[in-house]
Design brief:
Strand order of the largest sheet: 10-9-8-11-12-13
CATH topology of the largest domain: Rossmann fold
Shape: globular
Strand content: 5-15%
Mean pLDDT: 92
Low-confidence stretches: 389-394
Order of helices and strands: EHEEHEHEHHEHEHEHEHEHEHEHEHHH
Distance between the termini: 6 Å
CATH class of the largest domain: Alpha Beta
CATH superfamily of the largest domain: Glycogen Phosphorylase B
Number of strands: 13
CATH architecture of the largest domain: 3-Layer(aba) Sandwich
């Protein structure tokens, strides 16, 4: 498995890779994971981790396209070559941009390839405002076509990506497998729900909304700040707990909240271990996802559906592929509408209960772990590598 990410770090694609590895392990596959030299090792049965060389002075990897990521990708190729040329494998499973060398290597070795499509590569350039270069967009589009058409099996993680693959004529080889496990990890929590509010100075009876995630522009943290300022004028006792962001991002967001008039209602915790997030969720009344751009469904949405808490989200495709008016309060991506939804739901326990119950029912019916495992097995069946198979070195993917 080729994963061009800092593995493991508690953010989108690494979470997806973590759960893909766990599923494959449970299905009986032995996996050699090749990934970046950044991130912490995790213990998953039947999984071995091999890391690319670490360049000097590189300690973290930003989300989205970057020169730093390109450098790490290039160095990772040396480790991929060593593993692929001197060890026998039954298949190659590639994530994101590593699908291109993965397809070429699999073809050269005469083994099948699976492309794990977490996003559309040319679309990333726009989502992260990395480049508007027509040449670069065409290059990314060409690479994406090579990865899709050169793979015997393609996994997509949301309906929009599945539709993209179908439109490219590869629908018969693609399998939609939503990231239903979200940001869940196996590490035991050290924080209980009852400890969350006192630790961050929030009154036990204060109406509380929770945001968890990164502070990338597309996540809509600025929208949440403006909405919180409006909410504060109507419900001064309410609080918005914001979990995520590095030190610099948190300091900038605090300053913007003060300037907007939300300084008293917004509480910023900074990044927290993934194992603690369920305690934050249990301690709040409402969960919010103010994302303003993109089409991929946030991983946290699946955990939110199972949480027993009401959800407020923007009515954009990134959310509406999974959420509906029956399972969440969907509003336009503007501060006024978002503030109105927070005020309304924080003040109406019965409405929260109805949404939460319906969300949990949909999660049980459509986004269960059993369905996730079944679809993963089906995607691998297309490779001709049945569960429990092992290559000469004990590595099946």
């Amino acid at each position: 498995m080729l994963a061009p990410e800092p593995f493991f770090e508690p953010r989108g694609t690494p979470f997806s890779e973590y759960h893909r590895l766990k599923a494959l392990s449970e299905l009986g596959h032995d996996i050699d994971l090749v990934t970046y030299p950044i991130g912490r090792d995790v213990d998953i049965p039947r999984v071995r981790i091999f890391r690319g060389p670490r360049p000097p002075f590189v300690r973290r990897v930003p989300i989205g396209p970057s020169v730093r990521k390109l450098l790490l990708d290039g160095l990772m190729l040396f480790t991929i070559a060593r593993r692929g040329l001197f060890h026998r494998y039954d298949a190659i499973h590639s994530h994101e941009e590593m699908g291109l060398p993965g397809v070429w290597l699999a073809r050269w070795l005469g083994i099948p390839h699976l492309y794990d499509m977490h996003s559309s590569l040319p679309q990333q350039l726009g989502n992260f405002r990395y480049s508007r270069s027509g040449l670069l967009i065409r290059l990314f589009s060409w690479a994406e076509a090579q990865m899709i058409h050169g793979s015997q099996s393609v996994i997509t993680i949301c309906q929009e990506l599945q539709d993209t693959v179908v439109a490219m004529g590869a629908g018969d080889r693609s399998m939609l497998i939503e990231n239903v496990m979200g940001g869940d990890v196996d590490d035991p929590p050290s924080l209980t729900p009852d400890e969350v509010r006192p630790r961050w100075g929030i009154a036990v009876d204060a109406p509380l909304a929770l945001y968890t995630g990164t502070f990338e522009a597309y996540q809509g943290v600025d929208l949440l700040i403006d909405a919180s300022a409006r909410m504060a004028r109507q419900v001064p006792a309410a609080r918005v707990l914001v979990v995520g962001g590095d030190a610099g991002q948190v300091e900038a967001a605090r300053g913007r909240a003060r300037d907007a008039g939300a300084g008293d209602v917004m509480v910023f915790t900074g990044q927290q271990p993934a194992r603690e997030i369920p305690s934050f969720v249990a301690a709040c009344d409402v969960l919010v996802s103010p994302r303003i751009r993109g089409t991929n469904t946030p991983l946290k949405i699946y955990s939110y559906l199972r949480s027993g808490k009401a959800i407020i989200a923007t009515n954009l495709l990134t959310h509406t592929q999974v959420l509906s008016d029956e399972t969440a309060r969907l509003v336009p991506p503007v501060p006024e509408a978002f503030a109105e939804a927070m005020v309304s739901l924080l003040g109406d326990a019965s409405a929260r209960d109805v949404l939460a119950q319906q969300a949990r029912q949909v999660a049980h019916e459509k986004y269960s772990r059993a369905v996730y495992l079944q679809r993963t097995a089906a995607a691998y069946a297309r490779l001709g590598v049945p569960a429990g198979a092992a290559g000469a070195t004990g590595a099946s993917a």
